[in-house]
TrEMBL record:
<dbReference type="InterPro" id="IPR050955">
    <property type="entry name" value="Plant_Biomass_Hydrol_Est"/>
</dbReference>
<dbReference type="InterPro" id="IPR010126">
    <property type="entry name" value="Esterase_phb"/>
</dbReference>
<dbReference type="InterPro" id="IPR029058">
    <property type="entry name" value="AB_hydrolase_fold"/>
</dbReference>
<keyword id="KW-0732">Signal</keyword>
<dbReference type="GO" id="GO:0016787">
    <property type="term" value="F:hydrolase activity"/>
</dbReference>
<dbReference type="GO" id="GO:0005576">
    <property type="term" value="C:extracellular region"/>
</dbReference>
<protein>
    <submittedName>
        <fullName>Prolyl oligopeptidase family serine peptidase</fullName>
    </submittedName>
</protein>
<keyword id="KW-0378">Hydrolase</keyword>
<dbReference type="Pfam" id="PF10503">
    <property type="entry name" value="Esterase_PHB"/>
</dbReference>
Length: 271
């Protein structure tokens, strides 16, 4: 009833492989962030009957595999928006590792639904087409032409409204090479129609501390549309999380808070 009266925003939050939604909620502390920011969080979870490690099939982005999972997640979010009277202009999605890869697929396949996207420690989009290729992508990024990879996953002609995106990645990540983050930045530069002539705005925050990170922004009309956070002392884990939960790091800035602040500045308004 409160959600229906207040028309609150919603964040779909996708976990890493081998984790449950509950573990992700605890490790990221996103639920605490939601309590403070007054938004609703959904934690979709892959079935063990489909994948033993509960891994989203971001590495098979075709319509029968990863694309189908992305469509189901989008349908779940839409159902909850309608059920609880949530704000359809403030629907966001975020994920970690495999969850970041799937979050990208959801946003690219459903640009009319998703107002903004956040990817933490995620792989470049569209490079892999099977599990073995997915491992190669994680370890090295892509050696293919980035625009072509996007075209194989989404119709860029429909992105006239763009897709605001935030990318976070630990610079000590041994599982998903940091090169993936830089390639994601270039891919979403293209999605948002921000050509090479648009300059980046760069800052280093928390210098000399365990929370240090480099922030790179691309702006349109003085508003940040694309943001890359390269986190100095984080490996493969959620920055500023509960380190007692696997794939969450105590060091680094609070990724949940950073993501929510970015989302707050984004709204999907129909053309």
């Amino acid at each position: 009833p409160q959600a229906r009266r207040l028309c609150v925003p919603v964040v779909g939050f996708l976990k890493a492989a081998g984790r449950t939604g509950w573990a992700f909620a605890r490790g990221s502390r996103m639920t605490h962030c939601a309590d403070a920011g007054w938004f609703l969080v959904l934690y979709p979870q892959q079935s063990m009957a489909r994948r033993v490690q509960r891994c989203w099939r971001w590495f098979q982005p075709d319509a029968q595999h990863g694309g189908a999972e992305a469509d189901l997640i989008a349908a779940l979010i839409q159902a909850e928006v309608a059920r609880h009277g949530l704000d359809p202009e403030r629907v966001y999605i975020a994920g970690l590792s495999a969850g970041a890869g799937m979050a990208a697929l959801v946003a690219l396949r459903h640009p009319a639904l998703i107002a903004a996207l956040a990817m933490h420690s995620g792989p470049v989009v569209g490079d892999a087409n099977n599990a073995a290729a997915g491992l190669h992508t994680m370890r090295r990024g892509s050696i293919k032409a980035l625009p072509q990879l996007l075209q194989e996953v989404a119709d860029l002609a429909v992105f006239h409204l763009g897709m605001p995106a935030m990318i976070l990645h630990g610079q000590m990540d041994p599982a998903v090479a940091p090169r993936n983050a830089r390639q994601l930045f270039e891919q979403f530069r293209a999605v948002n129609g921000l050509g090479a002539e648009v300059p980046t705005v760069e800052r280093v925050l928390g210098l000399g501390t365990e929370k240090a990170y480099r922030r790179v922004d691309l702006l349109r009309n003085r508003k940040t549309v694309l943001r890359l956070c390269e986190i100095t002392r984080v490996e493969h884990g959620w920055s500023g999380g509960d380190a007692s939960v696997r794939y969450h790091a105590r060091s680094g800035p609070d990724a949940s808070a950073l993501i929510w602040r970015f989302f707050q500045g984004q709204r999907r308004v129909a053309a």
